[in-house]
Amino acid sequence: CRFSRRYVLCEVVSEDPRCRQCIEDRAMGLAVRDAIGRVHGDYGLACCSISFTVKYLNAYTGTVLLRCRKDSYRLLCSALPFVRHLESRGQRYACVLNTLHVGGTIRTCQKFLIQYNRRQLLLLLQKCTNEEERQSVQTSLLSCSLTEGQSQSGDEEDDGDTE
């Protein structure tokens, strides 16, 4: 039997630059589960834990992709603001999870992330102070594209319906 899923794209926001380099899938999953348990109790934790997983985590950009069942994604999203810290390797880092997008497939989240990063790079381009910075940002901006090879990678899980 196949269940509909939702993918929640988040970014880790922290004032401590060491936080992003130290986050791991397991630590992220534990922090989110802990927040769900505190906010929604055992019932909410049980509902969200059925299919919950950290599908993708990029420590350099602070991007996190979480997967859960369609019928419990609202519980997950409502608990994300209550993640206040991540624990990794015996260290505790203060952070906040900012929800960027909720999608029905990994591919829709990828497309959103490309557009989001492009907008962020345009904002950086406006704030550049010299030509060297401007060239660096323009190069990054031009490299923001989803190629055909990436879209056929097989990581996409399409459940055929959207909300």
UniProtKB/TrEMBL annotation:
**GO CC annotation terms, alphabetical:** multimeric ribonuclease P complex; nucleolus
Oligomer status and interactors: Component of nuclear RNase P and RNase MRP ribonucleoproteins. RNase P consists of a catalytic RNA moiety and 10 different protein chains; POP1, POP4, POP5, POP7, RPP14, RPP21, RPP25, RPP30, RPP38 and RPP40. Within the RNase P complex, POP1, POP7 and RPP25 form the 'finger' subcomplex, POP5, RPP14, RPP40 and homodimeric RPP30 form the 'palm' subcomplex, and RPP21, POP4 and RPP38 form the 'wrist' subcomplex. All subunits of the RNase P complex interact with the catalytic RNA. Several subunits of RNase P are also part of the RNase MRP complex.
In which family does this protein belong, per the annotation? Belongs to the eukaryotic/archaeal RNase P protein component 2 family.
Q: Where is the composition biased (Polar residues)?
A: 143-153
Print the keywords alphabetically: Nucleus, rRNA processing, tRNA processing
Pfam families from the entry? RNase_P_Rpp14
Name of the protein in its database record: Ribonuclease P/MRP protein subunit POP5
| Disordered: annotated segments | 143-163
Function in brief: Component of ribonuclease P, a protein complex that generates mature tRNA molecules by cleaving their 5'-ends. Also a component of the MRP ribonuclease complex, which cleaves pre-rRNA sequences.
Q: Where in the cell is it found?
A: Nucleus, Nucleolus
Q: Where is the composition biased (Acidic residues)?
A: 154-163
UniProt-listed GO biological process terms: rRNA processing; tRNA 5'-leader removal
Q: Which gene encodes it?
A: Pop5
Cite the GO molecular-function annotations of the record: ribonuclease P RNA binding
Its organism's taxonomic lineage begins at: Eukaryota, Metazoa, Chordata, Craniata, Vertebrata
